[in-house]
DNA sequence: TTGAAAGCGCTAACAT
DNA sequence: ATGTTAGCGCTTTCAA
């Protein structure tokens, strides 16, 4: 018997169907005279479908240009094989190689990696939590996050995770409740400055983003200060050039120029990042100081391009390959319950370039 | 009356609830004694909610750390205010500034921009179609795609779209059915070579990715050949160095070295991308040829870093700012039905650096 | 091997 | 101002 509500529903449906002209699983099913569940089975490679039906369905899928709706899929699924790589900051040149390595490792281990870029203004933990809900993630790799999580904040994340390229130096997490893979920023900075001191330099300037960002800059700045102290070199604030950025070459150039105008007595610069060194070398050159003849410069990063500059950059190389492998390995072990939380610190390796020389005495 | 199916459902629900411990909108609603629709209204800033209820709900949301499930949201919504920026290739340094500009423009116009990275192996049109389904997109900006779409392929995309930084030079799309924003690659290459010729160079090598990729390399290679022809300079295949890559500095270095070993008679190089020029300069230097004294070099791109190299790179600058603005503007006009399809071509601007000099005769 | 139907979490009618 | 309820498109029991 046809009743009023049937009619209403029919009208509503037809209205909807004209409004949103979407090929969904129902359309595909109807098109080849099978049930939606059968179509679903085919699309998900379930074994218990006859060859005939499978072919029929696949043909319909192709003909109708059917594309499954991932939202609907994720909604009904309780799990997935998806690991998210949550990248904060589009413009970090150090990340691109790391991403490639991580992607390779995760894929080879049989998982699916999803790359998600996020704005610097967003909070990675919130985004991570949301994405976990939404995409039924089984793990998260955070790339480039804050150094100061609290346990409550981290408790938002309900799946295994690893902090890549950063530590919890300014946070309050217990060592047994998070994993991280990074270099020892303070030590690396100390080593960079040591290298300059061992070449006879004592007036060593630092080119940094910020002195107290509770992040990478602050750690490397501390290393700079520590190194000076250990060599009984007085710390001189006038040799500190703050750029306020890691990527804006113009601002870095300007900061270096201001440094020279303020106090041109330095014989060496420690730049906390490769790209900073590039802008600094140009600024020095424009002010008539050649590198390395009139000023030595050491940086941290080890970008590929740094080997192709003139002069090549002397820099502390982050072992990207190893770091990427470690990130993937630790996360997968956590996911498969074969490992525990750990914080891995990698050593940087001095790559000697042409940007330093022994100071004539 | 309680019947058997009620009991079964209850058991099922409780089983599920213990298995998946998710705070969803229902939990929030129960927690503060309102209906789910009220919670939804609060979360979506609907006006018809009393201040009291709103506060109560927001408090519950905070207490329970409730995070809405975007999949469910997108599934039920019929529209959104979301534009996707679909980026192909993580490692294109030219993109990062463009992305920033586009993001700013789209946001300022009141839309939401979602950045999606995709692998080079994926097909951008397919991903775009899927994303449109899934996230109810109202527009797509394709960044770095193929140059050879066919009308059938493009018909997958049901929302307004703009091709950013590429054209349809090798495809079959009618001019009135797609929009693009790019430079004229062939012309730019021609201009680069013209510049070298006007400085007296006639043995001009080209450093390119590929001669016939039906993409950017091929267009720029054609421009190189056209320029030679117009100056009656015979084309010499031994002066073509193919790198097979835009980003692997090592491979570019090697290609340049091989070029020198094969035929060292060139007095200038046209590099189709800034980063290629960087590796080439290093290779030249390592083989005892200085730039610009022993070899001039011109590139295309105008990356920020190119202004900070020694020597600074002479390069044809792509007007990123204008291009970003144009991409956003065209798409928004299409979305708001205030515009039609158009293909915008920008002129590159010669930024004179220190990498070229007049050839002594 | 296949179909019918429940329901994932949410929004948007519609009802009150 | 708030509650009730019907699906969004899909997967997954369960039944046939």
Walk me through the structure:
The structure is a homodimer of 361-residue chains. By secondary structure, chain A is an alpha/beta fold. The first copy, chain A, has three domains: 4-74, Orthogonal Bundle (434 Repressor (Amino-terminal Domain)), CATH 1.10.260; 82-184 and 320-348, Rossmann fold (3-Layer(aba) Sandwich); 185-317, Rossmann fold (3-Layer(aba) Sandwich). Helix content of chain A is 43%, strand content 16%. Chain A is built from 13 helices and twelve strands. Chain A has helices spanning 4-19, 25-31, 36-43, 51-63, 70-76, 93-108, 124-135, 151-154, 185-198, 216-230, 249-262, 274-286, 320-335, and strands at residues 82-88, 112-118, 139-143, 161-164, 179-183, 204-208, 240-242, 268-271, 296-301, 314-317, 343-346, 349-351. In chain A, the strands form two sheets. Chain A has a six-stranded parallel beta sheet, sandwiched between helices. In chain A, strands 7-6-8-9-10-12 form a six-stranded mixed beta sheet, sandwiched between helices. In chain A, strand 8, helix 12 (274-286) and strand 9 form a beta-alpha-beta unit. In chain A, helix 6 packs across helix 13, helix 9 runs parallel beside helix 10 (216-230) and helix 11 (249-262) crosses helix 12. The longest helix of chain A is centred in the first third of the chain and has 16 residues, at 4-19. Chain A starts with a helix and ends in a 10-residue tail after the last strand. The A-B interface holds A 19-20, 22, 65, 67-72, 74-75, 78, 90-91, 93, 96, 99-100, 115, 117, 126, 129-130, 133-135, 156, 249-250, 253, 275, 278-279, 281-282, 285, 304-305, 307-310, 312 and B 19-20, 22, 65, 67-72, 74-75, 78, 90-91, 93, 96, 99-100, 115, 117, 126, 129-130, 133-135, 156, 249-250, 253, 275, 278-279, 281-282, 285, 304-305, 307-310, 312. The first copy, chain A, binds a DNA duplex (16 and 16 nucleotides) through helix 1, helix 3 and helix 5.
């Amino acid at each position: 018997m046809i009743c009023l509500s049937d009619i209403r529903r029919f009208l509503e449906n037809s209205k909807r169907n004209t409004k949103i002209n979407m090929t969904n699983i129902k359309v595909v099913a109807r098109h080849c005279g099978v049930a939606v569940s059968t179509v679903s089975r085919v699309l998900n490679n379930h074994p218990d479908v006859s060859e005939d039906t499978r072919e029929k369905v696949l043909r319909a899928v192709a003909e109708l240009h059917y594309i499954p709706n991932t939202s609907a899929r994720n909604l009904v699924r309780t799990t997935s094989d998806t690991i998210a790589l949550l990248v904060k900051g589009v413009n970090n040149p150090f990340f691109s190689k790391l991403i490639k390595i991580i992607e390779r490792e995760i894929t080879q281990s049989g998982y699916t990696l999803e790359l998600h870029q996020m704005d610097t203004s967003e909070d990675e933990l919130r985004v991570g939590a949301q994405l976990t809900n939404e995409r039924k993630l089984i793990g998260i790799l955070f790339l480039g996050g804050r150094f100061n999580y609290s346990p409550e904040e981290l408790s938002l994340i309900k799946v295994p995770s690893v902090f890549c390229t950063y530590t919890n130096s300014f946070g309050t997490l217990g060592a047994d409740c998070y994993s991280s893979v990074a270099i020892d920023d303070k030590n690396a900075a100390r080593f960079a400055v040591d290298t300059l001191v061992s070449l006879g330099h004592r007036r060593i300037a630092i080119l940094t983003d910020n002195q107290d960002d509770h992040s990478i800059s602050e750690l490397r700045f501390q290393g700079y200060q520590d190194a000076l102290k250990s060599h009984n070199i007085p710390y001189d604030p006038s040799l500190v050039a703050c750029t306020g950025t890691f990527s804006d070459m113009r601002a870095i150039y300007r900061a270096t120029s201001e440094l020279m105008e303020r106090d041109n007595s330095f014989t060496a610069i420690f730049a906390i990042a490769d790209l900073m060194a590039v802008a600094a070398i140009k600024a020095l050159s424009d002010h008539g100081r050649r590198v390395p003849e009139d000023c030595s410069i050491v940086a941290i990063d080890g970008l590929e391009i740094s080997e192709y500059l003139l002069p090549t950059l002397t820099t502390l190389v982050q072992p990207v390959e190893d770091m990427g492998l470690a990130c993937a390995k630790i996360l997968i072990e956590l996911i498969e319950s074969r490992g525990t939380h750990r914080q891995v610190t990698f050593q940087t390796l001095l790559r000697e370039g042409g940007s330093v020389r022994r100071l004539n005495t």
